[in-house]
What we know:
Blueprint: H1 7-12, E1 27-31, H2 39-46, E2 52-56, H3 68-81, E3 84-88, H4 100-117, E4 125-128, H5 139-157, E5 166-169, H6 176-185, E6 188-192, H7 193-198, H8 203-210, E7 214-219, H9 236-246, E8 252-255, H10 260-273
Parallel strand pairs: 1-2, 1-8, 2-3, 3-4, 4-5, 5-6, 6-7, 7-8
Amino acid sequence: MRLTINAWETRRYPELFRSYKGLFPFKIAATSYIYPDHIVPNVKMLAPHLDEIELLFFESAEKSLPPSPDIDTLAVISQEEALSYNVHLPLDCHLGDPNQNVRDYAVTMIQKIIDLTGMLNPSTYTLHLSLKKGAGHDETAIIEWQKRVGESIERILATGINPKKISVENLEYPFEWAEEIIKRYGLSICLDMGHILINGYNIASYAQKYLEDTTIIHLYGARKAHEHKGLDVLGEDKANSIKEALKGFAGVVSLEVFSFDDLQRSLACLERWV
């Protein structure tokens, strides 16, 4: 039995008026929180219109994870709608924390999520390698952090997951600090354009250096930290930098916004750009 969108759902939420599947030279994705609802209703609404959905697992608490029946439903939708998924791993899993118990918890929860979503065959698992400001950013502190992160990554890879399936996202610190870990363990990259802009880094430089190893790009409009708006808020210079970076990219571009209006405006911008 097909899991089609019923009339009640379409009356409750606005729907994209067209399909963007196969429209761009890259796969176009959006997050699983475009509508103020759970993952499955979001995916049902978006699946006919997009190539991929970014499943958001921002919190690691058991109650925040979808139950197994929901994963089964997502698998059925994937087959019916020719839809793929990527997974954003929890923000509260700190693989480089000085506290061993914190690292153990992070490894355990990431392994649990990988097991839970394995049947969906995600294109990538996006990972934050957070670096706490209070931990110090001198050379010795960074080396120790890299060592702790490396040990945690080794434990995750011991489960047999392909290292390329894990994409490390650039955050507020210089990405060179994570680059050594990525190369050592053969991981891939999630290039977050908003983080590049907000932290004053250069998009062209990042693209030239990292795009070849990038599996997924997070794309949204941002004028200040933690802002995820539509692409229409970007000025011309920033928009042009992003347009240049997207040329030749054939991976996944995820519009990391959290409302229908921001998604709709972002898709319209991409159509004009690409």
